[in-house]
Amino acid sequence: MIPLAELIIVAVILLNLAMAASGELAACIRLAAAQGVIAALLPLLAGRGAPSGTIVFCGAVILLKGGIFPWLLTRARVKANVRKEVEPVIGYPASIILCLGAFAASSWLGARLPLPETASVAWIVPASLSTIFTGFLLLTTRTKAITQVLGYLVIENGIYIFGLALFVEQPLMVEMAILLDVFVAVFVMGITIFHISREFDHIDTTELSQLGDWYPNPVKSAAAEAAGAGQRGSYDGGGQSGGKK
Amino acid sequence: MIGLLMLVPLLSGLSAFLIRDDGKRRVLLLTAAAAHLALTVYALAARPGIVPGDWFALDPLGLLFLGVTSVLFFGASVYAVKYLSLEKRDPGEDSEEGFIFNNAPEAVFTGCLLLFLSAMTAVTASRHLGILWAAVEATTLLSAPLIYFHRHKRSLEATWKYLLICSVGIAMALMGNLFLGAAGLRSGADLDLESLLAKALSLDRAWLKAAFLFLFVGYGTKMGLAPFHTWLPDAHSESPAVVSALLSGALLNCAFLGILRVAQVCAAAGLSAFTGEILIFFGILSLMTAAFFILAQKDYKRMLAYSSIEHMGILSLGVGLGGGAVYGALLNAVSHSLTKAGLFFVSGLVLAAYKTKQISEVKGLVRRVPRTAVLWLTGFFLITGTPPSGIFLGKFMILKAAVSGGHYAAAASYLFFLAVVFAGMGRIFLEMTLGEAAVLSEAEKPFKASRQMLIPAACFFAGVIFLGLYMPAWLNDLITGAKDLIGGAV
Amino acid sequence: MIKPLIQYFLALALAPLFSGVINRVKAFFAGRRGVPVFQLYFDLYKLVHKTPVYSRTTTWLFRAGPVAGLAAMLCALAFLPFGGRPAFLSFEGDLILLAYLLGLARFATVLAALDTGSSFEGMGASREVQFAVFAEPAFFLALAALARGGGGLSLAGIFTNLTPSAWFTASPVLILVTGSLFLVFLAENSRVPVDDPNTHLELTMIHEVMVLDHSGPDLAFIFYGAALKLWVFGSLIACVILPRHSGSWLVDAGAFILAMSAIAALVGVVESVMGRLRLLKVPYLLMTALTFSILALIFQAGR
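The joint structure predicted for all components is written out below.
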C-alpha cells in the first residue's frame, strides 16, 4: 500500500519537527521511541514478496526501539535526577526553521541521487536525510548528555530508514547488526551518563569543558606548590618514592 | 587460523573478567599477547590464501597492520603488567587539582584490553565492509572503559567526548556503507570487497562518490583527521600511557584501514583523482592543525596526541598523492606506530617521576631520570624524522613523490608544517630534558624507572632505527604488496 | 445560475446555526442543557432592534468598522464553494482575493478597536494582529498546496479538481492541509485553545475585547460577520474532507451541511476537552499550522 508507506514517512518527518520543538526531556524520549516504532512498520508494507522473517524482525525492532531504548534512557534520566526542561542553545523557532530547511535541502538532494527502480517508496531519501539532520541538531544544540544520546538514536533511526529503502529484499541481517550495535552503544552511554551525574551532580555538557587548548590552563599543579614539601599519594605509573598506601 | 587470531584474545578477555587473582590475570594478559604475536608471525610466514566470499582473510594490507598491532600489543602488555602492579595503590591523587580518585577495577581494564585486541584483529582481517564497520564500532565501545581507567572528572569528560564523537562518526560511516550498497544495487554487488572490486566499473558513480565522502568523514573521525580530531587530544592526555600508546599506534591505523578499503574500490572504479584530492586536502589540513596546536602546547601528552594527528595527516597525504608516496605512507604508518607507542610509554614514566603533565614544570630529566631522558630524546628525534629513522624514509618518499608528481603547493606546505612541528616539539623536548631540575627534599626518594617499563620503548625505538638503516626483504614484499592493492602503481 | 444563488442564500441563512451547535456540544460536555441551537438568530433579532450607543471619543471609523467587516465577509462568501461545487463568482486568482478580504475584515475590526482610544481594545488589537502574522501565511500556503494539485488559482477550479480518489493518491498532502486549516480555524474564530469566546477577563481576551464597545446593530453586524467567518473556514475544511462524489446537488448539499455540523461538533469537543493555551504558546501552535502547510506544499510540489 503505497499511500500508507507515504503516510509513515510523513509521520516520521512530523516527529522530527516535534522533537526539534519539544521542550521536555521525557517527551523527547517518547517521540524518538514513537519514530523508531513507526519506521519499523515500513518493511511490513514492502509488499513485493517480503521474506517470512520480516514479522519477527519487525517485532524485534519494535521491542528494541519502543521498549528497551526508552527504558534505558528513562532509567538514566531518573537516576541522574535531571531537570525536566531541555535547555537548548538555539531557540525553538530557530530549530523548527532549521529542520524545515534541512527537509527542503534533502528533498533536493534526493532528486539528485535517484535510487534505481527496485526501491519502492518515494520520499524515503529526503526523510532519512532530514531525520539524520534532526539528530545532529539535537546532538549539537541541546546541552544535556541524555539529549545527545537521543540525537544519536535519531541519527540511527534515519540510517535505518535509509537502509530499508535499499535492502527491501533482505533487510534482516544488515539491520539486525545495526540495531545490536546501537543497543550496546546506548547501554554504554547510559552507564557513562550515570557516572557523569555522580561525578558532576548534573549532566550539563557545557560544564564538560575543562580540557582544551584555546584558553590558558588556569589550574596550577599541586606538585608545583608541594615542591619542597614532599609529595604524597600515588600517581599514574606508580611512584616508588614514598607511596603512602 | 584467522579464527584463532580473533578467538584467543576474545576468550582471554572474557575470562579476565572472571579471574579474581591479579597475578594470574596479568600472566593471562602476557600469555595471550605472546600467543597472538606468535600466531601473527606464523600467518606472516605461511600467508594463507584468500578465498573469494570469505568474511575474514589476510591480504598484504591487512597483514601489515595486523603485524604492527600485534607487536605493539605485546610491548604494551609487558609495560602494562608492571604498570598495573604499581597502580595497585588506591586511591590516587590527581596531580593537577589535588583531588582523590579511584581506579577502575583491574579486571575491567585487562578484559577490555584483550577484547580490544580481538576487535582490532577483526578490523584488519575482514573482507566484508559491513563486518569491518561493526568491528570498528566495537573498538570504540571497548576502548571507552579503558580511557576511563582513572575515575575523575577530566577523564570522564574525555571519555564522553570520545564516545559521542566516535559513535556519530561511525554512524556516518554506516551511511557510507549504505550508499555503497546503493551504488551496487543495479549491478548486484554486495558489500563484500571481492565483489565490489570485480564490479567496480559498473557501480553508480554519484552514489560511489557520496559513499566515499561519508566513509571518509566517518572513519576519518576515528582516525583523527582534522577537523574531526577534537576527541583525540583529550582522550590521549587523560588515559593511562598504555591505552594512549594502543590508541595512537594501533587504533588510528585500523581506522585508516577502513578508508583504504574504500579507496581501493574507488581506484578500481576510476575515481582515484577524486579521492586523491580529498585525501591530500585533509592531510594538509591535519598537518596545519597539528602544527598550530603544538606550538603553544602546555601539556606534553597532548603534544604527543597532536603529533599523532600530524602523522595521520601525513598518511592521508601520502595515499592521496599515489605512486611511490603510498609506499612511504605505509612505511610511515609502521614506524610511527612503534615510535609513538614508545614515546607514550616513556611519557608515562615521566609522569610517574614528576607527577605533573605540565611542560613548564618538568625540567632536567637528564639529571633526575637519565635512562628515561635518553629514551625521551631519542623518541623525539625519531618521531620528527631525523635520520636514521623509518619515519624519515617514509616522509622523504612522500616528498619525492609530491615533487615529481607536480604537486608543488602540497609539497611546500608539507615541508613548512613539518618544520613548524619540529621547531615546536624541539623546544618542548629540549626544555624538558635539559635545564635545572627542582631540588628534591630529603623525604623523597629519587624515582627509579622500572626496567620492565623501559624495555618495550627501547625495543621499539631500536626497531625504528633499524628500519631506517635496512629494510628486510619480507617487510619490503609486504609493503609493496599492500601498496599495489591500494592502486599505488601510478 | 440558480443553484449557486441558492447555495449563497443557504450559506447566509445557515451560518449562525453552527455557533449554536458548538455551544450545545460544550453544554453537553459540561452536563448542562445549554442555550437553544437558534440562539444566535434571536440575539441578532434583538440587537437589530436596539439603539446603538457611541462614545464621544470615537469617529466615523468606529461606525464603519462593523459595516466594512460584514461587507468583506459577504463578498468572500460569494467565492466560496459549497459541497465541492463552485460559487456564483469565480475567476483565476480568487483565492488571493479571499485571503485579502479576510484580511480586510480583520483590518476594519482592528481600526475600529483602536479608534475607541481604550487600552482594552488596543491590547486586543495588538494580540489579534500578532497572531495573524502566523495564521495568515499558514492559511495562504495551505490553499497554495491545494492549488498546486491542479485547478489553477481559483477556488472553484481547485475543488472541482479534487476528487475522492485524491484521498488515496495524495493523502499526506490532504491530511496536512486539513490539519493546518483546522488550526487556523481555531485561531481565526477565537476558539479554545487560542482564545476563549466566553471569557471577559482582561488577561485572556483577544477577540471579544476588540468589540467590547459596540452595541445595537453594530454588534449584530459583528456577530453575523463572525458567524460568516466560521462558515468560510468550515466550508473550506468540509470541501477538502468531502470532495464532490455524487452527481446529485441535493445529496452533495446535504452531505456538506452534515460535514459542517460535524466540524462544529468537533470544535465543541476540542473546546471542552482542552484548556486555553498561554498567550506565549499560541505562536507555537500557529507555527505548527504553518509547518503543516509548508510540508503539504513541499509534498505537493514534489509529486
